[in-house]
Amino acid sequence: MKNVALYLFRTSIYFVLSTLIISCKLNTNIETTSNEQPIPEAEKSILYSIETTADGSGEKVQSLSLITGSPDINLYAVSRDEDQSFLGAIKVKWSMLGSFGQLNILQGGQQALLTNLIVGSGSIVVEHESNIIIIQVSVLPPPITLAVEALYDNGQDWNDYIKKTNSPIVDNTKPACIGTENNSSIASCVNGGVFRAVRIPSRISCSNLTGEDNEAWFDWYCDDSTGGVIFYTQSLRSNIGLKDLISTSGWKTNFFTLYESSQFVAKSDADTWWGNSVKSLPDNSSGSAINLPAGTDGNNTVYFANGIITSSGYNLNADKLSVVTLEASELKYSSNLNDNCHSINGELDGSEDLICLLSSGGQKFLWIEGNFKSNGSGSNADHAIFFYNVSHSHILNVVVSGSVNDGIRFLNSNNNRLKNLQLHSDPLLIETSYYNKLQNIKIGQGNLNLKYAKWNYIYDLVIANSTSAGLVYYFDAAEANTLVKGLVTNSNTSGNHNLDGVENITTHFTIANSGGYGIQEQDYHQGNLYNNLIVTNSGNEGIYLQAGNSTVLSNIATVNNNRADLYNYSENFTKILNTLLVGTGLGVNYRCQNNIPANPGFDDSTCTQSGTDGSVDYSYAGSNALLRIDKSASNSFVGWVSSDNINSTAGVNSSGEVAYNSITDWVNFDNPFRTWGKKGSTFPSSDNRGRCSAGNCQIWDWRLKATDTMFLNKTFDGSSINSNFIVGGSCPNAVNGDLTQVGYSREILNDGVGDDDRKCEAGETCEMDTFLVNAIEILDDFKGDEDGLCESNEACLYTPNYGVYQGHGSMEGPCNFTDGVGINKVINVEMFQYNQNGI
Questions:
Q1: How many other C-beta atoms lie within 10 A of the C-beta of residue 329?
Q2: Which of 103, 428, 471, 530 matches a 20 to 30 Å C-alpha distance to 465?
Q3: Measured over all CA atoms, what is the biggest interatomic distance in the chain, rounded to whole angstroms?
């Protein structure tokens, strides 16, 4: 290139190059113009150019705009006289700068062939004597045509369920669910309708590519493992429901936009993405209950209510039906006093003995979403929703109120997903039902009853101002349920009443202001495990163990309770593990009390033999928790608040204190750690406890203060501050692969042996359920088993605090997790944390 610079300097010559656009069919743009070089006066009769043919019949070339896949490009060096008459081909020197293809020199330099085009840019430099021609070249990918389609062949429409197999998530051949599958892995059947895809076979890498849909219904993920690029979805965004996808005229249109390095590349046409019929619910405001689908409507119809719609009830009598209330709409029960659903089968069969707003019996693949009120003008329905033997269905973004009995009742119903539920003065009953997943459940003036229920998974639970116990396990078949992250406050009796429950796991809960016990284990319960709890200001004992055996208490803070913080009346083989934080109770002089069963797990009055802070000298085998004494929650929680921007109750922003009879919104607040309760004196006091049922009720905020010295960031040893979480660096000492809790022996699934019900039975291959003490699983990321416990090979959230509040803000990480090396180890965890902790 030194010759180039010298020539330009010595002669001050510039080139006027020509532009040509050729071969539209080839998507090839060649810019041409007159590119003859200035020649000194004595030689001005001969001009040189680069052309597209060797005989002078082609066009002169200055630049090339090409796409990959275009045919090879022939370039020729020719000479002309000053009248532009063709003289002949000449030999020149060709070179290429940049990466965009391969330049082959032919005929001794008279011709160059540009082949093997790749995406890139640069130039072709042509030198002849002291003359130089520079041809700018750019090669782009071919134009992209985008279309949104189903990710799975068997998931074309809404409520088409597919099996979650071990093949890659983008494997479009995943089989359809038939509805009899045992959903023992929680998510073995999923609604294929929420999986949409955009396939881009012309691209081979996701690098620098992003995509979004115009309506922001989904988060989009990119996969390049199959030879092309696929953008796909796997769930609706947390604030989106089916109601956002439809209107009164049918499915809304949407389109996908592709970006590269944040620059627009292409977009799909605006179109609808599902094929189900969308219809208004048939009117039965003055008639009797109706079976759906109505008339000639198809089995996969999406029904909607628009406005305030009064109904005498609907029975969903086919698979794949949906019932949705549109924005600002509600479906409410009429004044019809006639029973319209049968308690033994959920059907509208002529033997009805209940009144239900929505009911179904024996169906699968249903979708329910919206605002459902049981309180009619003349009578109230027994249940807003009653499902009997219903499976693989979604109850999403549902608000219920006004029921005579349980607002939502599931009986003999398995493998369902209940998410984002609000129950105002209505209980939620899960009865003789297995493998259901409940997430983000808020109950005000009601409770959650698990009656003969097994293997249900409950995550993010708030129960406040219950008329009885907040959380109830009934009878010995309430077995192997897992509850992660819960807030139970101001229950009329116990916060958690476990009656004969077996091997249930409750972790990361705050139970406060209970009228009776904080936790009451009663009768023949066995092997229930409690991890990382705050139990405070209970009217009786904080934790009360009666009969039964083998309760495990791990990382427990039980303080400021009216009687003993921990009382073992008659249970054997209790274990106290990791840390135990106690106070002195209110008006009593003991922290722990036992009635001397055979092996109570801790020492009477002093918890350990010495009763000193930091001691571990328990008299009973199996317990090893670090004892921390004289703890108090008096300055730990944010407590009373004077306003709330979300709660719709009139007058709530004057003081945060409203007359009980005026409260219309029991569950919605600025953050998920707020509840209604008694105000009374300064917390903790006896007049804070129990249900607020008269006079004024107060909004409480149960987040930890940033100044708290009892429970904030102390889960490693209950006293000192946990070590730091360093993004890209070390994880805290409170979360390493050997600081684990062993649950129960569980069947290994999908190994060809056993019934895959997760219960370890004779002849089956089993393993211990081992999880981290101070972390919880991140849900809906398709990485783990979705039970909420942080186990090997999962992405998890670090939990630095005791109780339900574990920070707020955005999630950051990961830190470098240290795998366990012991027998009960956890390995290969991606660990994240909230970037703020404390208020």
A1: 16
A2: 530
A3: 120
Give 180's pLDDT tier (boundaries 50, 70, 90).
confident
Structure tokens at 723: 């070590």
Average pLDDT of the residues in 193-220: 96
What amino acid is encoded at 210 in this protein?
A: T
The helix/strand/coil state of 549 is strand
CA distance to 82, 298, 564, per residue, from 320 (Å): 80, 9, 52
Q: What share of the chain is helix, strand, coil (3-state, %, to 5)?
A: 5, 40, 55
**Radius of gyration of the CA atoms of the chain, in A:** 35
- In CATH terms, the fold of domain 2-140 is Immunoglobulin-like (2.60.40)
Residue with tokens 């009865």: 431
CA distance 117 to 71: 9
pLDDT of residue 769: 86
What secondary structure, in 3-state letters, does 373-419 show? ECECCCCECCEEEEEECCECCEEEEEEEECCCCCCEEEECCCCCEEE
Beta strands at 250-251 and 246-247: parallel, antiparallel or unpaired = antiparallel
Phi, psi of 784 (to 5 degrees): -120, -160
- In DSSP terms, 250 is beta-bridged to 247
The CA distance from 724 to 718, in Å, is 16
Helix (H, G, I), strand (E, B) or coil at 64: strand
Tell me the average pLDDT of the chain.
91
Q: Which residues pair with 496 in a beta bridge?
A: 471, 519
Of the candidates 80, 127, 71, 119, the one whose C-alpha atom is nearest the C-alpha of residue 98 is 119
The reported pTM is 0.85
Query: ω into residue 143 within 30 of 0, thus cis?
Result: no
Residue 476: the pLDDT is 58
Q: What is the pLDDT of residues 702-728, one digit of tens each?
A: 999 999 999 999 999 999 999 999 999
The SS3 of residue 15 is: coil
814 preceded by cis ω (within 30°)?
A: yes
Question: Length of the chain in residues, anyone?
Answer: 839
Residue 187 has what pLDDT? 55
Q: What is the pLDDT of residues 558-608, one digit of tens each?
A: 999 999 999 999 999 999 999 999 997 554 557 899 987 778 999 999 999
Round to whole Å and give the CA distance between 704 and 638.
6
Q: Which long-range contacts (CB under 8 A, 24 or more apart) does 227-231 make?
A: 227/201, 228/199, 228/200, 228/201, 228/202, 228/203, 228/204, 229/199, 229/200, 229/201, 229/203, 229/204, 229/205, 230/151, 230/170, 230/197, 230/198, 230/199, 230/200, 231/197, 231/198, 231/200, 231/256, 231/258
pLDDT band (50, 70, 90) for residue 780: confident
Beta bridge partners of 518: none
Alpha-carbon gap, residue 384 to 404, rounded angstroms: 9
How many other CB atoms are found less than 10 A from the CB of residue 570?
A: 15
Q: Check residues 462 and 189 and name the one with the higher pLDDT.
A: 462
φ, ψ (nearest 5 deg) of residue 662: -95, -10
Residue ranges of the domains in the chain?
2-140, 148-267, 276-407, 435-706, 740-836
Strands 46-51 and 73-81: antiparallel
- Please give the backbone phi and psi of residue 60, each rounded to the nearest 5 degrees, phi first: -85, 140
50 forms beta bridges with 77
Q: 714: burial class by Cβ within 10 Å (0-12, 13-18, 19+)?
A: buried
According to the model, what pLDDT value does residue 724 have? Answer: 98
Nearest to 506 by CA among 487, 523, 528, 527: 528
In the chain, how many H helices and how many E strands?
2, 60
pLDDT band at residue 654 under the 50/70/90 scheme: confident
Residue in this structure with the two tokens 């004196």, named with its chain if needed: 681
CA distances from 683 to 152, 513, 535, 688, 712 (A): 55, 9, 14, 7, 18
**C-alpha distances in Å from residue 636, one per residue of 485, 531, 559, 706, 711:** 18, 19, 12, 9, 7
